[in-house]
Amino acid sequence: MENTPLFWILFNLLIIGLLLLDLLVFNRRAHAVSLRESLLQTAGWVTLALCFNYFVYRNLGHEAGLQWLTGYLVEEALSVDNLFVFLLIFSYFKVPPEYQHRVLFWGILGALVLRAVFILAGAALLAKFHFLFYILGAFLVYTGIRMALSGSNEPDIDPQSNPVVRFLSRHLPITKQFDGGNFFTQRDGVRFATPLLVVLVMVETTDVVFAADSIPAILAISRNTFIVYTSNVFALLGLRSLYFALARLMKAFHFLNYGLALILIFIGSKLLAEDFLRAHFNLEIPVPVSLGVVGGLLLGSVGASLLWPKKEEV
Fold this sequence. Notes:
This protein is mainly alpha-helical.
């Protein structure tokens, strides 16, 4: 299945069709997405993801199904910080709530293309150069340790430090006011970009940065690019809908970063130890064990945040 272009084409057509349905039917009118609407949309995407997981299980086998579910959970977990950065970007630019969905919609289309390129290129390199697995494992362990030591991934949002935004500012006149949900506007016959376009560029480039952590982690779980790509896409779609609920709740999960750090360290260590365990002990870490560790760390960090809530600073 992984090498059949038809499945790739059909999958992407399905996703584009679902996104258009979301934009033209469910979100045809610009409005602030309510908590209830966000949770209902998320439930819909999760249901579709589990149905697709069952499809993978039936067509590619038990292990492939577990790999897909593990990759899906890892991408969901590692993308939570991405959502927090989106929240900071929207707050910095004072984007009206009714236009945030539009930015996330067009942002996800760009993310689909960029992540497909990253996944296919990464898988091709790993297949050709086995030593890259050790570099990838070390990178994931380093990233996990850095995340654990920092205790937080909350960056400063400075548009002028973003090279793409700087390029945009030099080559396009940008208005100071929003023009509804438009990325461009006309004034006295002159075409201007609106701040909403700058926000879209910030969201896209932020996703590229975060993909540098999450995609290597999923490639460490499965070498099947179809599994990696499709689990990645469904996780992104679910999180895009969940953003509007998580925006209100994310600060409550203050132990989540430590859980994510341990997930990265576990996956990186597993990658580094694979050949040694196979050569000297004829051992392999089964996919169900990886799934259990990832799920346990994720649930444990969320549970710890709820049991020991962060004290409000006075």
